Amino acid sequence: MVAAANIQYAWTLFVPEIQKTFGWDRAAIQVAFTIFVVVQTWLTPIEGYFIDKYGPSRVVMFGGLMTGAAWVTNSYATSIWGFYLGSVLGGIGVGCVYATCINNALKWFPDKRGLAVGLTAGGYGAGSALTIIPIAKMIDAGSYAQAFFTFGLIQGSVIILAALFMRAPAKDEVKYSTKVLQTRRDYTLGEALRTPVFYVMLLMFTCTVTGGLMAVAQLGVIATDLGVKHFQVNLYFFTMAALPFALMLDRVMNGISRPLFGWISDRIGREKTMFIAFAMEGIGIVALGYFGSNPWAFVILSGIVFLAWGEVYSLFSATAADTFGSKHIGKIYGVLYCAKGFAALFVPVGNLIMQATGTWSTVLYTVATMDLIAAALAVAVLRPMLKQHHANNNAAVPNAALAHA
């Protein structure tokens, strides 16, 4: 997961260099990011099928091959279509890695799902923290293509090596939680799609992930437009430009948030944790739009946004497994994870809205509203629906036992 992270989280460093080299419109370049996210997310249900059929090791190994090939392709691209092809390969590769690792964590640790999937997703969220500075330096040295090629080979190789050690758990190797409501029934994908609670989670997931994706893809662009990109942040023991410092801090906060909020949700419940995190993200994005032209505020507030955003990948996956069981969770969460693909469609739209209004505030306030709506839905709609869902399951169990008797 650490090795797969750069394709998404380091992309923002390459966009200005690609634009400078070829002179293409920024929105057209960002279509590559949208393609990557759409392919990564919308193929997840298919990848769930292959996980169940061939096991986690083979799927991740194939994902490593495609992940490496994606950035190598970008290093040779001389047309916009070359970068689009790299995005397709990257989406397939990262999708295989991400879906399999999350799926495996959900199956291995049902008693600590929030923490386990949070730690796993945290590898993806914080994975690029160690490589942001080396990549930025290689790009600044005048060769973004060399950065693509070198790190593409490194990332692909690490994933393939790690895949050799993966396996799924046996039934006698897992135990269930006593603090969080969890179904003992394993829903099929078709059964899950016929429940209203699935679509409430899909709507909430789409609302919350949109703001974070917008920040991930556009942070470098926003920093440039706000005039803070090259401001030197002085922390006494070292000095760094505001953008790479913010990116490094954001990756760390993004990584911390997934196990942190996952651990909290194992103790106070998923829906309460969702309300806290989504409200924090919405308020943070509003503040970023209002105070972002101040370099220190830009760094701190972007960190808060990523702290409150990263947890969506631990909370929704854990909630899905609690609600529908783990046997078919690869396919079920795969469809739910398509929300990220829907959200990615808004990334190029963000550029267009900014160009039309002349300010990023309009974009940021819009996605902040979506976060606050999701926070309200978590406690007002999702929580009572889940209670009813589990009550129905508990009622069905004795009835089924009586029928067999």
UniProtKB/TrEMBL annotation:
CDD domains: MFS_OFA_like. The keyword rRNA-binding does not apply. It holds the Pfam family MFS_1. One of its GO terms (molecular function) is oxalate transmembrane transporter activity. InterPro entries: MFS, MFS_dom, MFS_trans_sf, Oxa/Form_antiport, Proton-linked_MCT. Residues 1-386 form the Major facilitator superfamily (MFS) profile domain. The chain crosses the membrane at residues 27-46, 83-102, 114-135, 147-166, 197-223, 235-253, 274-291, 297-320, 332-354, 360-382. SUPFAM superfamilies: MFS general substrate transporter. One of its GO terms (cellular component) is membrane. Keywords: Membrane, Transmembrane, Transmembrane helix. PANTHER family: MFS DOMAIN-CONTAINING PROTEIN, MONOCARBOXYLATE TRANSPORTER. This is Oxalate/formate antiporter.
